[in-house]
Design goal:
Helices cover 36% and strands 16% of the residues. The chain is an alpha+beta fold. A six-stranded mixed beta sheet has the order 4-3-2-6-14-15, with no helix packed on it. Helix 7 runs antiparallel to helix 17 (509-521).
């Protein structure tokens, strides 16, 4: 029997029903033609987008001022918060103790005013029964002041401390039970009784002012203003000053801090510095003084029309040659000159917590050229206080750094326990140490062979300083100045003196300063 041949059939493999066969034939894609209606739809959509964009842009423009205003008020709020924190944390004590804070006066109902004491332990203001008493009368009248009629001096500046009691808590409780007043704290000043007495005696009955201070600390050792008054008799003094026929008596004016005087030749210190800055070859300066000359149509003459002859810059300064310094003045860059004076705090605030008047330097680039010669020698419209002149000299003595002048050293309770201690603070670096050294060299020439040499003959210490004669009317009447410091290598004290109408007295600023320096070194 013939064997059958086996035939194998290949059946295509199929996927599940839901699946397509493997390797399916590619589908033909249908191409759809874009109609006019489709284009219109796209254009319409684009128009909607553009419209929406324009709307957003308009809203952004409208919102921008609102956003900027929001940022402004947010920044303002932040600044206000920083300011409030500064007041609460940093300036709290100074604001509370501000003499113009009248709330402190309310303490007088339950606190007896504390004492004012010098640095060497002398009580200069205390209480006698219910009356304020000043043991040394006129000697401290302006610097210590009085406690009625609005107060003045330290009685005003230290009012808060004097009416604050830090007595023992048990003592205060006992006073409260017995309805007695607490005893206020004592103010220990920087004043030195010996120096205050020396300054007062040196001025005598002459009208004028003196301030003595330490250049490296800013401590004020003495402050005297004449004419003075007796604060124990303040009722009668006040009645006299405020009377209709008093003609505006200035007896209560503290001339040391409020008296504005033309600086005279003491201002040549700044004119000298301005010239040194502009002319690096200043040592080559030369001028032939004939005693009188004309500058910018203004006649300038030296004291008594004295002919100084050929002078260099140091000789011009030592002899206080007016014509030479007028010549220097007209060569200066007025803007730089003005800026220099402003850097020394002319036309600005002094770093002093008490009452004072601002010094003025009004020469500018727009000023008439005829004002320059007079200004350069310390005349014209320039005015300065003795306090300010002392700060200028202290800056030089302290290597170019101005210290803040101050009168309160510490606060103690009535049992002598320390409550608060004040320390010296630097205000600002005004000039370089090199400039301070150069100026000191020129100031020493004044006392060694210049206008102050005779008054300082025979001294056992060294002095650097500048004299000044400041005319204040057309009759030639003048004030006499001296500003300077002692122990030149390591300065001890600065003295600033002005004598009003020096022609009517035998005293000069230099003679008074000599007495004060002598008293210090005794």
């Amino acid at each position: 029997m013939k064997k059958k041949k086996e035939v194998t059939l290949k059946i295509p493999q199929m996927t599940k029903k839901s699946e397509k066969p493997l390797n399916p034939k590619p589908e033909k894609r249908k191409i759809r033609r874009i109609s006019t209606s489709d284009i219109e739809d796209v254009a319409g959509y684009k128009g909607l987008v553009d419209k929406e964009n324009k709307k957003n842009e308009l809203n952004n423009r409208r919102n921008k001022p609102i956003l900027m205003l929001t940022y402004f008020f947010a920044a303002l709020f932040l600044c206000m918060m920083i300011y409030i924190v500064q007041i609460i944390v940093v300036e709290k004590d100074s604001i509370i103790a501000n003499p113009y804070n009248k709330r402190a006066d309310a303490y007088e109902d339950y606190v007896t005013r504390g004492e004012i004491i010098t640095s060497d332990g002398v009580v200069v203001a205390t209480n006698n029964a219910k009356t304020r008493y000043y043991p040394y009368g006129n000697m401290f009248s302006h610097v210590v002041g009085f406690s009625t009629y609005g107060k003045s001096g330290l009685e005003l500046d230290a009012n808060y401390y004097l009416l604050t009691s830090n007595a023992d808590v048990f003592e205060r409780v006992d006073n409260m039970v017995n309805k007695d007043k607490n005893i206020g704290d004592n103010v220990i000043t920087t004043l030195d009784y010996h120096m205050q007495e020396a300054a007062s005696n040196a001025l005598g009955d002459t009208s004028g002012a003196v301030i003595v201070m330490e250049p490296d600390t800013g401590k004020i050792l003495a402050m005297v203003s004449k004419p003075d008054f007796d604060p124990n008799d303040i009722d009668n003094v006040w009645a006299s000053v405020t009377a209709e026929d008093s003609s505006g008596s200035s007896i209560l004016l503290n001339r040391t801090t409020q008296g504005l005087y033309p600086p005279g030749s003491t201002f040549k210190v700044l004119t000298l510095l301005a010239y040194m800055r502009e002319h690096k070859d200043y040592e080559d300066y030369s001028y032939d003084c004939l005693g009188e000359n004309i500058f910018n149509s203004v006649t300038i003459h030296c004291a008594s029309s004295k002919v100084h002859g050929e002078e260099d810059l140091k000789d011009s300064f030592a002899h206080s040659c007016n014509t030479s310094f007028a010549n220097i003045g007209i060569s200066l860059d007025i803007k730089a000159y003005h800026d220099l004076c402003n850097s020394f705090l002319y036309n600005g605030e002094l770093p002093y917590d008490g009452v004072y008047n601002q010094s003025k330097f009004v020469l500018t680039q727009k000023s008439d050229k005829s004002l320059i010669p007079q200004t350069a020698i310390g005349q014209g419209d320039t005015v300065v206080t003795p306090l300010h002149n002392a700060l200028i000299m202290s800056t030089i003595a302290n290597g170019g750094i101005m210290m803040k002048p101050y009168l309160i050293d510490s606060i103690e309770n009535h049992n002598g326990a320390l409550i608060k201690k004040f320390t010296s603070e630097s205000y600002k670096k005004i000039i370089t140490p090199s400039e301070a050294e150069d100026l000191t060299e020129y100031l020493c020439a004044v006392t060694e062979y210049g206008t102050a040499a005779k008054k300082f003959e025979g001294i056992t210490y060294t002095v650097a300083g500048k004299t000044g004669t400041a005319e204040y009317n057309s009759e030639g009447k003048a004030h006499s100045w001296f500003i300077g410091f002692s122990n030149v290598e390591n300065p001890d004290i600065v003295v600033s003196v002005v004598i009003e109408d020096a022609s009517s007295t035998d005293k000069t600023g230099t003679s008074v300063a000599r007495e004060i320096f002598d008293a210090y070194y005794e």
